[in-house]
């Protein structure tokens, strides 16, 4: 049986992650409150932000920025996009 969570992004019951995505309290929070769908979408956005904004993940400010964007995205709040980015039509 698939484990479900009340997704913080979509505000409904959806299939959850199989394991916490990172160690520590934040990983447990994400595991308990974020759907697998939302986490996958975050991964795509994260990759776009790193590439298009040329983020160096060795830089503390870049990691802080990305963590802030992750928290906004997973809460369902507006997030940054690359300049000129046009989301695909659904």
Automatic annotation (TrEMBL):
Keyword 4Fe-4S on entry: no
Keywords of this entry: Iron
GO CC entries: cytosol
Name of the protein this chain belongs to: Probable Fe(2+)-trafficking protein
Gene Ontology MF: a single term: iron ion binding
Coiled-coil intervals: none
Domain of life: Bacteria
Organism: OM182 bacterium MED-G24
Function: Could be a mediator in iron transactions between iron acquisition and iron-requiring processes, such as synthesis and/or repair of Fe-S clusters in biosynthetic enzymes.
One Pfam family from the record: Iron_traffic
InterPro entries per the UniProt record, alphabetical: Fe_traffick_prot_YggX, Fe_traffick_prot_YggX_sf
